[in-house]
Amino acid sequence: MPVAGDTVLITGAGSGIGRALALEASKRGMKLALVGRRREALEETRRQLPSTSECLIIPGDVTVPDDRQLIRRSVVEAWGRLTLLINNAGVVTAGRLSSLRDDDLDRLMATNLSAPIALTRDLLPLLCAGAPARVVNVGSLVGDIAMPLFCAYSASKFGLRGFSNGLRRELKPLRIGVTYAAPRGAETPAASAAAQFLEPFGMRLDSTASIAVGLWRAIDRGADNQYPRTRERLFVLVERLWPSLITGTLTRQLQRGGGYLIDTETNELVSPTESISSVPQK
């Protein structure tokens, strides 16, 4: 799908991967709509764009219906169509399941799963008007390889991957493609906050700039999926063909890292690490 001169809306555009995606979009001469909860962060992203870039700033929380309607009205008034929607906003919640609060889980699922589904629905008429168009859902490798200490976060990304697969088949007759992107981890404040939970598994993080470049390459070629060109891509294949091997490896890594212990009196799982509350991922 050609993208030069097209219109793109990026959620979570105030930092991290979202900001890097916006910078790459500006290099392609695209008109941008930057969405995020904090206006000042969005303004900082705009300041890093070339002065010639056409850019809308739309502060709003994608989990709030009224804010999603504001996003839709802003695009209608500015362009009347949309050729690319990038659902990038997300939060990371990590830690042992027994320590996660209801509000952590509610925010996690609302931001990572319900909001992308609802926003895509709300903007679908604009995508139809801009067809050929594309929806890009930024997931994670843990949407393929479910990680201990990240089981709720993994569930949200598994759901996003399933949504992407079903939506791709539903929208194909409308000339709207769907790309599911699965970076292995970004060098962001959210990843830093979750570092103690990543350490037992030796998970490596990539720069937001390199993630954005890879994702835009996938968009340019109209790919259905985008995975990093690292050893983790092989792990995804092993997970699908031989999941017990991945289970054994992750369990051993977790035990070596002291992630879980057995309380011999209660016979329950306990952990020396507490959870982190939901931290914005992008």
Explain how this protein is built.
- This protein is an alpha/beta fold and 282 residues long.
- The chain has one domain (7-280): Rossmann fold.
- Helix content is 46%, strand content 17%.
- It has a seven-stranded parallel sheet with strand order 3-2-1-4-6-7-8, sandwiched between helices. A two-stranded antiparallel ribbon has the order 5-11.
- α1 (16-27) crosses α8.
- The relative contact order is 0.15.
Percent helix, as a range, is 40-55%
Strand numbers in spatial order across the main sheet = 3-2-1-4-6-7-8
Strand segment tally: 11
Order of helices and strands: EHEHEHEEHEHEHHHEHHEEE
In the CATH scheme, the class would be: Alpha Beta
The CATH topology comes to: Rossmann fold
CATH homology-level superfamily = NAD(P)-binding Rossmann-like Domain
Q: What oligomeric arrangement do these chains adopt? A: single chain
Structural class: alpha/beta
- Tell me about the biggest sheet? 7 strands, parallel
Name the shape in a single word: globular
Low-confidence stretches: 260-270
Termini separation comes to 25 Å
Could you say what the CATH architecture is?
3-Layer(aba) Sandwich
> What is the total domain count?
1
Individual helix count: 10
Rg on CA atoms, Å: 19 Å
